[in-house]
Design a protein that fits this description.
Elements lengths: L1 H20 L35 E6 L3 H9 L2 H7 L2 E6 L3 H8 L1
Parallel strand pairs: 1-2
């Protein structure tokens, strides 16, 4: 009795999987056109002497090497000129230990 119930259930599972696999498929959706790229906007000019965060300092803690850190720091030059924030990349080979100690 137990074996026949298991056999019937197994047969029903296999048949349902077979029917699901052989079912009708939907037509693929029509490809959509990508939206037009927006024109890049120019950053607002900051009047001379009006640096909202002058004197502030942001330290970025990283495992980057000396050359990588210098290149990374160059990414912030324009931002520094516009805001007055000084970005410093603090690099260390012992990043994991120091990040736990500093937090």
């Amino acid at each position: 009795m137990k074996r026949s119930v298991f056999s019937i259930v197994a047969l029903l599972v296999v048949l349902s999987m077979l029917l699901a696999a052989c079912g009708a498929t939907e037509a693929p959706p029509e490809p959509t056109k990508a939206p037009e790229a927006a024109e890049p906007t120019e950053a607002a000019e900051v009047p001379e002497g009006d640096l909202p965060y002058a004197g502030e300092k942001v330290v970025i803690f990283s495992t980057a090497g000396e050359e990588q850190a210098a290149v990374f720091e160059q990414n912030f030059v324009d931002f520094e000129e516009r805001t007055g924030i000084d970005f410093v990349v603090d690099r260390s080979g012992d990043f994991e230990t120091l990040s736990v100690v500093r937090s």
